[in-house]
Structure to design on (390 residues):
């Protein structure tokens, strides 16, 4: 960020009085330009024991398999965002949707909100950001050509819950260290316990 | 938004090619400035059957009671944000934290992520954004002087779960219509069911 989006003056990168973090502050109108994480909403869409995946028609990870998901827009709910992305990327309609997992990815300031739901009629076809859409049995999941770690982790949790006969809402985080090694932390499932 | 934060040229408000929403687009460098919802993370902090509330020392809702919560920062997790806000607003330390509820508030493009956790030692004192901090029994909660609807709804869900002997992870949305009437929708608890 170089200029104030409000008045067009140059911005400085410094800690505002009473704050403890570097912010972009306008040298003209003193406006502080806060920057915050973005939400990516998506869905594990089920149909007859299969799960819907799409191949990406866009970068990054062009040609790899992913769950339908994308940046949440202003003036919508996380559920609407997940439903919209499934419609846009796979022309697929959802019902019986509920939150399945949320992952924080602090090194890229993203928070994933992954729902799970049923495809209304099993139909899907590629939207403009997809090359292909396909329903996969657990045994057919292309684990080695999934686009993002969060897709792999969400699917692992999903099949583990399904095979155990009970779904939980999962919460966790993933990050990369300086050598780009990925670490995934799934928080304990504690929501059901009375402390 | 009037100016491009990258190059300082004026922006236009129009729909980019291949998109279906109005965006701010730079007339100089063509950069599209996406705007996305912000996350507010907070915590229902328990201690000996009581819950921690703070009175707000800042606008909006100066002097009203709230749960410790605030805007999530870049490069942190939602759990770190909830813990940090509890520390900053109430000088209180948490343990045994787990996600309790998430609410989308589309008319103001906010998503709340409310955790629940235990106070390590029961200690709290006002941070710079609080006038007072206090532990409340369920019977003492100041329902008529709570700062925000999301605080009231989170506490209602919390005590309902606690009294029923089982906590769930809740998901819902709240919005205001043109007459400013608030509507709250709590999604059904379905996570535990195998479909």
């Amino acid at each position: 960020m170089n200029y104030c989006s409000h008045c067009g003056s140059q911005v400085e990168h410094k800690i505002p009085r009473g704050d403890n973090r570097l912010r972009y502050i306008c040298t003209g109108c003193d406006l502080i330009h806060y920057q915050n994480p973005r939400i990516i909403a998506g869905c594990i869409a089920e149909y007859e024991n299969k799960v819907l995946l799409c191949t990406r028609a866009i970068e990054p990870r062009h040609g790899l398999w992913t769950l339908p998901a994308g940046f949440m827009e202003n003036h919508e709910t996380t559920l609407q965002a997940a439903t919209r992305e499934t419609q846009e990327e796979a022309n697929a309609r959802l019902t019986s949707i509920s939150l399945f997992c949320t992952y924080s990815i602090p090194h890229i300031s993203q928070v994933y909100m992954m729902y799970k739901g049923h495809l209304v009629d099993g139909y899907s076809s590629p939207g403009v950001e997809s090359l292909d859409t396909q329903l996969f049995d657990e045994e057919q999941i292309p684990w080695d050509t999934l686009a993002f770690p969060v897709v792999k982790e969400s699917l692992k949790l999903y099949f583990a819950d399904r095979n155990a006969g009970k779904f939980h809402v999962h919460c966790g985080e993933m990050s990369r260290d300086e050598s780009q090694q990925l670490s995934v932390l799934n928080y304990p499932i504690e929501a059901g316990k009375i402390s």
Q: What stands out?
A: Chain A has a mean pLDDT of 95.
